[in-house]
Design a protein that fits this description.
This protein is of the alpha+beta class and about 625 residues long. The strands form three sheets. Strands 2-3-1-9-8-10 form a six-stranded antiparallel β-sheet. Helix 6 packs across helix 22 (about 525-535), helix 11 packs parallel to helix 20 and helix 13 packs antiparallel against helix 19 (about 465-475).
């Protein structure tokens, strides 16, 4: 039976028993069931275990090969470990346990770096080679499992969470380039973190340390095409591929459920689970205690309740209050390690806390929008390319009609005249430059930082520019914002979330489907995905237009959250940050939001998130 461990891994390339155990304690919440250490000349490794499958000592980590050459610590699951084990046994390999950890160890011992491409799973691992005195770090294809490192030119320190690396004497200075990107995108894109001395290992990459030298190498990448030419064939392939992915991820010896929204993706997962599972499925959603437009902010929760009833699930709804949101934010800042600004963080964190007494594993619908064109920006991008294909003499008149009659918003003009690639990506994804320039100090502000960072991701250009925009979201926003947020805020309560839509087979398949089959219309994307999942979706879900996960935060700022906002955004809360921010301007932005003169939730929440992080981690300017 598979021994699956969601956990924390820690280590470094020198000896220090005290620091190793300090790191271990700082990540204990990730794996409270067991612990293990490996210490030898030139290497220190630690493992926190959250047991999901096979609750015995089988597969306990750190684990070694029989000859003692290779030692592994591993966070995650290898879903195709049985097939790999069979291949290895045919090659003469022997196994002592039934664990996927042992299979992963033998995959590396047999095939080395080429072995990563054989894996289907979510993982972050460190493998020590005793004979070559070499440490290899590796992260899964999409970056579901986090991995951070510090390298000073000689020593390497790594962990599942930044806070453990900070147990060492490493710098806490801000990466000012990351800060600029953060206020434009609401997260720090990898490989940067908000700490100048600490980096993210990018998804689909490995880091190889030997004799004091460090090399970062890419082992997996998202590729374009070859494209389907038969839409019916593509629909069938989506349905069967996702069904296989869900089937693989249903294995668990701990209670398992679904984080259910009112949308297409998580409902599709529930629909497939209901076909593949025996007995009722536990589902969990979040609603909001609010007197302000409760029907709008609880529409998602009500739809989820209807979907759960449709499938005969055992449904649970957590109702979040403004007080809940405020009291959780300092804990969230600690768990997140670096500022990631999203006003639904309290919802994720408290929903996981609410669900934990009943389940240890939750399946979610993450990734559907990025892979299959769920966001309106993808429809706009595709539509703009169609407009730009109009012969030049007629193009100006058509553009004027579209902008003036169909959309009627002057701020839409830069989007409609943008060229495909990084220019269009930035027009749609960046926060408003005038707000950023207002709140950041002039000495700090770098308006070109985004172009410099993201430009390389659009080179070379793809045949399908809108699919390339989706691929960049999958490579950046998904691992560095969405999946990071999900991992940290669920593992804070030792609860694992699995993401079947981001199965490697699904990712490869998604970029073989032309964007024109995905985008639908500006109110509902994911057209081909919806058609594929139609047999599993209730009528009330099919009738809904696409909408985001709304929370009342923007309105709560004008009411119950206002005293909190005033405190955190005052110049006195973290006086050192006056070097970074223009606090009189921040107060003006807050006042304009309160008076409804100008909506500024994203900028205000980014500031609050940053200030709480700065205060929690005692950062240096």
């Amino acid at each position: 039976m598979l021994s699956a461990f969601m956990c924390g891994i820690n280590g470094f390339t020198f000896g220090d028993p005290v620091r190793l155990r300090q790191m271990h304690e700082l990540t204990r919440h990730r794996g409270p069931d067991d612990q293990g250490f490996f210490e030898a000349p030139g290497i220190s490794l630690a493992h926190n275990r959250l047991s999901i499958i096979d609750l015995t000592d089988a597969g306990r980590q750190p684990m070694q090969t029989p000859d003692g050459r290779f030692t592994i610590v591993f966070n995650g699951e290898i879903y195709n470990f049985k097939e790999l084990r069979t291949k290895l046994e045919d090659l003469g390999e022997g196994f002592k346990t039934q664990s996927d950890t042992e299979v992963l160890l033998h995959v590396f011992a047999r095939w080395g770096e080429a072995g990563w491409l054989k894996l289907n799973g979510i993982f972050a691992a460190a493998i020590w080679d005793r004979d070559e005195q070499k440490l290899t770090l590796v992260r899964d294809h999409i970056g579901v499992k986090p991995l951070y490192y510090f390298y000073d030119g000689t020593r390497l320190i790594f962990s599942s969470e930044i806070k453990a690396i900070l147990a060492h004497d490493v710098g806490r200075e801000i990466d000012r380039a990351a800060l600029n990107l953060y206020f434009r995108f609401l997260y720090a894109p990898g490989p940067r973190t908000m700490f100048q001395s600490i980096k993210k290992l990018p998804a689909g990459h490995m880091a190889i340390w030997a004799k004091g030298n460090l090399e970062i190498k890419q082992w997996g990448q998202i590729k374009e095409g070859p494209y389907f030419t038969d839409r019916t064939e593509a629909i069938a392939e989506i349905r069967q591929t996702l069904k296989r992915a869900v089937q693989r991820q249903l294995v668990s010896d701990r209670p398992l459920g679904v984080f259910l929204s009112g949308g297409i993706d998580s409902t599709s997962i529930l629909g497939l689970m209901s076909e593949l599972s025996a007995g009722p499925i536990k589902t969990f959603s979040v609603g909001y205690e609010t007197d302000i437009q409760p029907e709008r902010f609880n529409a998602d929760a009500l739809l989820a309740e209807r979907s759960a009833k449709y499938f005969g699930a055992e449904h649970h709804t957590f109702m979040l209050s403004p007080r809940d949101a405020v009291t959780s934010l300092e804990k969230i800042a600690w768990h997140m390690d670096e500022p990631v600004s999203n006003h639904i963080q309290s919802s994720t964190y408290l929903l996981a806390k609410y669900a934990k007494p009943q389940i240890t594993v939750a399946l979610g619908g993450d990734g559907g929008d990025e892979l299959f064109g769920g966001y309106s920006r993808y429809w706009y991008s595709h539509f703009i390319d169609q407009l730009r294909a109009i012969p030049l003499p007629q193009r100006h008149a058509v553009f004027s009609f579209v902008i003036g009659k169909l959309f009627g918003q002057p701020q839409s003009v830069p989007k409609f005249i943008s060229t495909s690639g990084v220019e269009r990506f930035l027009v749609f994804m960046q926060e408003k430059e005038d707000l950023i320039s207002a709140v950041l100090s002039p000495e700090l502000n770098q308006p070109r930082s985004a172009m410099n960072h993201f430009g390389v991701l659009f080179n070379p250009a793809w045949q399908d520019p809108t699919n390339q925009m989706m691929s960049v979201d999958v490579r950046t926003w998904l691992p560095d914002e969405s999946l990071a947020r999900t991992d940290k805020l669920t593992m804070a309560h030792a609860l694992e979330e699995r993401v079947p839509i981001l199965d490697p087979e699904m990712v490869e398949l998604a970029f073989r489907i032309p964007s024109k089959w995905k985008v639908g219309n500006r109110n509902q994307g994911k057209k081909i995905f919806i058609d594929a999942m139609r047999p599993y979706l209730p009528p009330h879900v099919l009738q809904q237009e696409k909408r985001g996960w709304f929370s009342p935060t923007a309105k709560w700022i004008r009411g119950p959250l206002l005293p909190f906002m005033r405190e955190i955004l005052s110049a006195d809360f973290a006086p050192q940050t006056q070097e970074l921010f223009n606090f009189p301007q921040i107060q003006r932005v807050l006042d304009d939001h309160i008076s409804k003169k100008r909506y500024a939730l994203n900028t205000l929440w980014a500031l609050v998130t940053f200030q709480l992080w700065y205060h929690t981690y005692k950062i240096k300017i």
